[in-house]
Amino acid sequence: MLRRAVLGAAVVVLLCTVLVSLLWAFQRHLVYLPDAGPVGPAAEAVPGARDVVLETEDGLRLSGWFVPGRTPDAPGVLVANGNGGHRGMRAPLARALADEGLAVLLFDYRGYGGNPGSPGEAGLARDARAAREFLLGDGGVPADRLVYFGESLGAAVATGLAVEHPPAGLVLRSPFVDLAAVGSEHYPFLPVRALLRDRYPVAEQVRRIEVPTTVMYGGADSIVPPAQSRAVADAAARLHRVVEVPGADHNDLVLLSGEEVVSAVVELAALSGG
Length: 274
Prior knowledge:
Largest sheet: 8 strands, mixed
Strand content: 15-25%
Low-confidence stretches: 11-16
Helix content: 40-55%
Structural class: alpha/beta
């Protein structure tokens, strides 16, 4: 009996070791869910948009869509996507913001939308920097009129960029405290914090960002618990507003391009430039 118990325990340990090893090796396949495309031409998705290429500091060329503002000094919006799909899913948001006269950049991270490379925290940070450089350069958006909008994982990307290069305003949609915190919600039986390579410490970083920050979330979010988004709002150094959309789940259309989302971005854009 003792021998069987020892053998059984050894099998359990071996299986756990194999599971943890697999999770360590393939964890980014659980975090990043790219859609390779195809992604159609910009003008077919958003009136007045054009296809653009962003060049990252590590030599990648990323595809994007740019919609010029109504006037040369119009505010601009850098849209940082969530962890799934590609920029085509955000076309309704770009159309709504462009209708308000704003310049808009939709782009795909490395590994998304047919782009080269593999996603990871450091890589997405480089991609966001390239997006900002495009908007300030070829896009002609004044630095003091640039707003960052990030959804879910993109909220973490936008927050990291805002620490390095503060925008005129920051809109975080469905942000999590950090990646481990949200991962633990979905995999409570695993040592997520010990395993994760990518951290995305949103709540920690937002304490250091001295720009108007709006946090919005769905009241029925099943991916990022509303309590985590509220914790990010509580941590914000310069909280402008908190917007809860009652009954909305993480991927509901109202949180992708609904009136509340568009109004939150437009409101901060209106405050930009003094």
